[in-house]
Amino acid sequence: MVMLTDPPTVPAGTTMLNLTYSNVTLHAVYPDGSSGWLSVNASGTVDLFSLVNMSQTIASTSIPSGSTVDQIQFTIASVDATVNGTVYTVTPLSSTLVMPIANSKVNKTLSGVLVDFNPTLVLIQGTNSTGSVVDYYVLVPSATATVVTSLSRAQVKVGTIVELGKNDREKLVRVVESFSEDLTIVNASLSVSGNVTSLSVTLKNTGDISFRICGLTLHGDFNMTSIVGKRTRLGTIPFKVNGTSLVPLLGADSASLITSALTLEPGQNATLTFSGVLELKRVCIVKGPPIVAAPMIIGVIPMVVTPIVGATYTVRLMNEGFQTFNVTATA
Question: Model-level pTM?
């Protein structure tokens, strides 16, 4: 069985977070030494709020006893969130998750791959391609997986939701700790020169399995200043990974960019970098006199986002496991 559990981190006012998944596949190494990806042909929609301390079976298949299931992959087809009564279409930082599986030997009649899917829903306020003001949401996924064996026959049925046992919760904690030790942020720097922000994050894989990195987030208190001098605040900037480059997601247009995740093999390290102007675009609206039915849009004002020199920021690598690193912004 493939089972999903989920403790999400969401903004205040979020009452629903639905994820539609598809293309669930398992990488299996069979007793005869052969290996390959096994498609489970599963798809569906889960309410992630219903899976706090619970697990839901999302797929089921049969493999020979004694096989090793060492990776799982599935596609995030779509995500919807309800925040303060409004339904939003959410952009995932990565639409495909590929996770190594801990304790991957399957030697029980009933075994399962338990995926701990711990996403963070990030709010960004900007404009869309037509210049309309929007609240824009990005889902930053973090996930680990482990094989579990204390299962009931009822859990074979797809859709079954059961309470997550204490042993399985403890096992997931150990897996997260282990992966966090294997894939580490060894160094990071953050600087600002005028309107240009430079971010550098060095990663190292000290484990014995490969890790796939699709993005990270930078958390802290940023300045946002428009050309007319208006200042506001921004708390989180998500970045997609494109090779070793970091691509900021600061609006609906940037979210549509096609990027390529980075795979770190055992013993490898890599430095992810961004250098450029972080910019949101806001529509400037002037209210007309009472006889005017609608306010007048006078243009789009760029909002330049910069770190505050001397402030501390947290880099969060939220893919396989959960790694953080604190860095102070310099001039």
Answer: 0.74
